[in-house]
Design goal:
333 residues, mainly beta, 10-stranded antiparallel sheet, 7-stranded antiparallel sheet, globular, disordered N terminus
Length: 333
Amino acid sequence: MRSSLSSLLASFTMILGSAAANAAPCDILEQAGNPCVAAHSVVRGLYETFDGSLYRVLRASDNVTQDIGVVSTGGVANAALQDAFCEDSDCMIDLIYDQSPMANHLTLGPAGSGIPEPDTGVNASKQPVLLGGSKVYAAVFEGGMGYRNDNTTGIAVDDEPETMYWVIGGKHYNNECCFDYGNAETDNIDHGPGTMEAVYWGNCSRWGSGAGDGPWIMADLESGIWAGQDSYSPANKPMDADFVTAMLKGQAGGFALKGGDAQRGSLTTLYEGGRPEGYEIMSKQGAIILGIGGDNGNLAVGTFYEGVMAFGYTSDSTDDAIQESISLAGYGV
């Protein structure tokens, strides 16, 4: 059973303490009073002190698994270990570990009302990239792929506030549903407006859109992906960068979308205000999805590097600090 967010916040203070300022996103959020309740990455530690496993690979030739951790505390993924383990066989990522104390790990997504077959995992070695000058591997979703946790701890429910961001590949997207990361239904069934709150990336315009032809950072609120309060939100400009930071914040009565180049510069507020008609009071359920929609819609494509879900609605200064941390990490092709 999920614990209340208020009691979990008190637990965070005891678990993590008052660490000195540093550049890791979850440390920034902890110091701001918005601790991470989920922290997933296939490329780096999201706490300065993280020294565990980032993800697990499954080798096709013999069905043996191998955890892939960081090279050093708070550092980048150990791509050399993955290369050695997968040298003579394909490997897929079958589990992405949660670095937060909540242990909200992501496993392969089950069947849902949208797509009645379970999801497969991404090819672990599909796309090497650089992070801080070191080789790491992205999680490249090519349709039919996705991850989920329907039994979480600490994730916002109903109209509780939350903040989430992810770093994604800016040139890899399509107009299908739904390349999402965030809060979804706990039974993989579409429960209607307001039962999701996940950040979306792509140029699907079935329900709403921003300016131009996309791609846009939008909010998947279930039975609708929204660039703002209205079906057309011209202030939500397309993102044009190799690596994109996409952020969604929700609270009672409203939500905000922010985005920017993950390699440099600041975040732009794409929308902040009230919710669309029919979404005024949210009924979030608290599951976590990655690469799919709440009903397991898995036709979208995209590339994932890191993502965080945090307690509460963060301040602009906290958002700016997170973006600075991401740009200093040194994403590169």
